[in-house]
Amino acid sequence: MSFTNYLFSFQGRINRAKLWLFILIGIAWEIVIVTVMMASFGAASVSDLALGHATPSALTLGMTGMIAAAAVVLLFLAYLYAAVAVTVKRLHDRNKGAAWLLVFWVLPIGLEIAGIAVAGVGVATAAHDQAPQMSLIVLPFVAAAVGVAIWAFVELYCLRGTAGDNRFGADPLAGKA
């Protein structure tokens, strides 16, 4: 499998080791993005923005800054695309379709948002002395989100793929012990 196919194709299967390798690629990609930002905006401006401090130097982009910001957005989108492609291939190795991304990625986020929304409505309508109890409403949503995230981690990063060929292709570990 070529490097381009590994990062940007949705076809085939990859084993756990290649998914873990993608974590290292992601770290390197992030270093590139931060380096581009620091070179364009200056280290002080980047740290001010990261900490939420809107200093004049952090907000002054200019043409170079706008080009760098566009480059950062494009790098992030390329990384996101690659993350989806690599994860889909790992799901294929577990004999699961791409729709499982909805369960492993979208469901935990949706549960978190639902918990925050329910708690927000509860806090807004509750009396002042009931507000601490509203945080207990969030707990089942957070617990469910964490449960799904743990399941996804075990499924994708810990369990071996389907032994032998499956509907998505040949076993990436075929012939290896």
Sequence-ordered SSE layout with sheet pairings:
Elements: H1 3-8, H2 16-41, H3 43-50, H4 56-59, H5 62-93, H6 100-125, H7 131-158
Helix pairs in contact: 2-3, 2-5, 6-7
Q: Explain this structure to me?
A:
It is a single chain. This protein has 177 residues and is mainly α. The protein folds into two domains: 11-95; 96-160. Helices cover 73% and strands 0% of the residues. The chain has seven helices and no strands. It has helices at 3-8, 16-41, 43-50, 56-59, 62-93, 100-125, 131-158. Helix 2 runs antiparallel to helix 5 (62-93). The longest helix is centred in the middle third of the chain and has 32 residues, at 62-93. It is flat, with a radius of gyration of 21 Å.
Counting H and I runs of at least 4 residues, what is the number of helices? 7
Count of folded domains: 2
Shape by Cα distribution? flat
Gyration radius over CA:
21 Å
The helix-strand sequence is HHHHHHH
- Helix content range: over 70%
Percent strand equals: under 5%
